[in-house]
Amino acid sequence: MEDVNINSLEDTIVALSTPRGRGAIAVVRLSGERSLEIASEIVENSEKLLEQQTHRIARARLLFENGQLLDDALYSLFLKPNSYTGENVVEFSIHCSPFIIANVIDRCCREGARPAEPGEFTQRAFLNGRIDLAQAEAVADLIASEGEAAHRAAISQKEGNLSRRIESIHDNLLETVALLETEIDFSDEDIPIVDKGELLGRMAIIREILVELRDTYQRGRMLREGVRVVIAGAANVGKSTLFNALLKEDRAIVHEQPGTTRDSVSARIEWGGVGIRLVDTAGLGDHLKGPDKAAVTKARAEVKQADLVLWVIDLSESDHELPPADIIDRMLLVGNKSDISVKCEIPSEFKHLMVSALKGTGLTKITDNVLNMLSLDSNSIEIGSDTLTRERHYRAVAEAVESVENAQSALQKERGTELIIADLWESAKHLSSIMGKMTADDVLNRIFGEFCIGK
Fold first, then answer.
1. pLDDT tier at 378 (50, 70, 90 boundaries)?
2. pTM surpassing 0.85?
3. How buried is residue 412: exposed, middle or buried, by Cβ count under 10 Å (0-12/13-18/19+)?
4. How far is CA 378 from the centre of its chain?
5. How many other CB atoms are found less than 10 A from the CB of residue 348?
6. What average pLDDT does this structure show over 114-136?
């Protein structure tokens, strides 16, 4: 997306705001100073549109340039500043024909609009002060949400809950800075204006709040992006059977011959409102060659990237492949084939379950345990809670924590009030960047470039 400039913001933009393809209704959106003027050029009885009250829907006949009927449609009018973008907005609800859509957009462009860039409507909402940057990102997350938990997280952020939390911490930082600046203003009096213990206490509270917020990111990321659950273990222990059983459909090939699965197979499902990316992998083992060795390498890479691993063993065999030590803290050991005589003992240090993938017994325990181990379920984020879901926010809060810690150290070592103030200002700056108050244009362009055209 091109850099934001004054001229581009003065343009009136147009785009299809609904998905392409055949359907009942499509919405074409106009936003900008000339929206009403342009819309009036393509409707019959344009005087009615120009006299229309804001936030009203009316019927209109859209015309070709030669005056012939293009479509019998509806339009919605939203006058500035009380529109999504903060500008005059007209939305045409038209029949979802590719021909009609193309001609409505073409007519708008011929009358002076230009095609919108990806995310430009939401970018204008941000630049016109209708929403802050965190709320703008939440719009994209809301559109992309595939599960109840992701939806709740996006709604919470879009409603401004995270922004209000950040604003509160930001205000506390500035109040502390104000106290320190008072100390500088009265430095000639040789009287301590602010108690050192009080300042350290204030900073400790701010740091504690920031650390608590920072530490919500891993959970928030999984709520937003979904959880990557990888099924792994030795060959022929029933991994693909378990994969199919959890999906309730035959997606992976199952055969008694070991090594049937070579390429990883994945599918998206939802457990307890949380999006899950379930991955079936090739059997792990040593002394493999050729395609089998490549499959094992890929399987190990999947295990490394997993949020949680379901390590499957065959209960009907006395020997089994133990999981690597580096995944124990994010692993649930699944003893499969519990419907057959159990011959092996599961080490007590492993969190484990016994199931029969073939018979379908014990499978609900897997879903419950996965969500419990990750502290995730559909109620794990309520409207009004504060959770970081984006890496950009996490990095900003982590840097804010570091700056507060630098200020604490400077105060304890009496390095000078100016240095302490500088560190606290730096912390406040990092927090401001979350809401877009101090954010570089290249960051803004990258954020809004992730949107679809028409939003």
1. low
2. no
3. exposed
4. 16
5. 6
6. 94
**Topology (CATH level 3) of domain 142-220+390-436:** Four Helix Bundle (Hemerythrin (Met), subunit A) (1.20.120)
SS3 state of residue 132:
coil
Q: Which of 13, 40, 248, 207 is closest to 112 using CA atoms? A: 13
Tally Cβ neighbours within 10 Å of residue 291. 12
12-130: CATH topology is Gyrase A; domain 2 (3.30.1360)
Which of these ranges, 3-7, 121-125, 332-336, has the smallest mean pLDDT? 3-7
What is the spatial distance between Cα 216 and Cα 201, in angstroms, rounded to a whole number?
Answer: 23
Handedness of CA 255, 260, 264, 265 (dihedral sign): negative
Cα distances (angstroms) measured from residue 339 to each of 33, 321, 362:
71, 20, 11
List binding-site positions: 29, 91, 130, 236-241, 261, 280-283, 455
SS3 content of the chain, % helix, strand, coil (to 5): 45, 20, 35
Q: Taking all residues of the chain, what is their mean pLDDT, rounded to a whole number?
A: 86
Known binding-site positions for (6S)-5-formyl-5,6,7,8-tetrahydrofolate: 29, 91, 130, 455
pLDDT digits 0-9 by tens, 418-439: 999 999 999 999 999 999 886 5
Considering the chain, what percentage of its residues have pLDDT values greater than 90?
Answer: 53
If we measure between CA atoms, which residue out of 135, 169, 146, 150 comes closest to residue 219?
Answer: 150
Q: Domain spans of the chain?
A: 12-130, 142-220+390-436, 226-383
Q: Which amino acid type is present at position 312?
A: V
Average pLDDT for residues 190-204, to the nearest whole number?
80
Residues comprising the binding site for GTP? 236-241, 280-283
Instruction: Classify residue 92 by its DSSP letter.
Output: E
Distance CA 49, CA 40 (A): 6
Is CATH 2.60.15.10 what the domain over 226-383 is classified as, yes or no? no
d(CA 105, CA 91): 11
User: What's phi and psi for 83, nearest 5 deg?
Assistant: -120, 175
pLDDT at 96 over 50: yes
Residues 6+ apart with CB under 8 A from 160: 132, 135
Indicate the annotated binding residues for Mg(2+). Answer: 240, 261
